[in-house]
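Feature request, filed as a ticket because there's no other form

It would be nice if the structure record came with a short human-readable summary line next to the tokens. Right now we just get the raw output. Example of a typical job, pasted below so the devs can see what we mean:
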Amino acid sequence: MLERDDFEKRYEAGTPISIVEFLYPLLQGYDSVALEADVELGGADQLFNLLMGRQFQKAYGQTEQIVMTMPLL
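Raw output as currently delivered:
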């Protein structure tokens, strides 16, 4: 999780990271496993969460989903 640039900087600075911020990417990633998703669309700000889904799918022996991001409106 500390691969995420903003988490790493905040951790090094001693700035708190809430449990909600930490769990959200994990839960969104697991959704991809539960749904056996083939494709997931999201905003560019969600790239880390979408890629988390691919990592979970690989760990569960599923084909990794295609991830497509779009700029925020």
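Something like this underneath would help us a lot:
Strands lie at 39-43, 66-70.
The CA atoms of residues 36 and 73 lie 28 Å apart.
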